[in-house]
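Hey L., structure's done. Input below.
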Amino acid sequence: MPFTKPILISGGGISSLLLASSLRSNNIPFIIYERDASPSFRAQGYRLRLSNEGLDAIEAALPPEKWEKFWAACGKTGGGDLAAYNAITGETLEAGGGLVTLITNVRPENMNDSDVMFGWTMGGSPGVIEPPNDNYTMVGKPAADIAKHLSRNWHPRFKPLFDNMVEQESAFWKITCSSPDGVPEWPNEPRVTVIGDAVHSMTPAGGIGANTAVRDSELLGRLLAQAGEFKEGITAAYEKEMRVYGSEAVKTSFRTAQGSLGVVPDLSRTIDPQNV
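Output:
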């Protein structure tokens, strides 16, 4: 029999909303529960970088008209090679070896599109610091002042990035990451599963967190739609496949963060999933 009770989705992040869109397209009822009052209720990062895998997942989960609207609204970075710069001297370095790197995010067919836009991703040395007094809720001018202090010795060509920042939108961003050992095994619960950061949170290094999250949404939504009703084994099949690509994504993100940002895990804050 078809789904008669709604699927309950906890959290209104990107993976939850894409899953909901997939369910709606297949006439599967759902309810989303979100504690934040608005998208701007708290600082939540600065952008989403979508690769081919992420874009393919979103396109597969959305109906054509919504996909076209989404794609038209996306900012698209330019094609070409990476350009890396030493933030202190301003010198151009070999790609991947600098403290400031211009990255690209574009599908192959758009490589020569003259209307694409460019964006910057910055990392410094040591790259990751702890906030004063362990205050991870710091926003606005105090957070902006920290950024300006850390970059005080950077080359003048990069100073406008900080001099012209919108201070009220600045925030101290806490980085959390799942174990680089991979997504753990747990006894499957046929009616409950996890997607997105709830199962494989990762550092922003590599820009693959959102891409992995939307893959979850597409996969779970597709399995539910194919079943047409609740069946034993849906969440187990989803978790089996998700563990493979999710584990690899976390490992890749962690290795990249170690190499580019000097990330060192704070094991005193580690959460044992067996005790949750």
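Helices lie at 14-25, 52-61, 64-73, 141-150, 159-163, 197-200, 209-227, 234-261. Residues 77 and 117 are 5 Å apart (CA to CA).

-- N.
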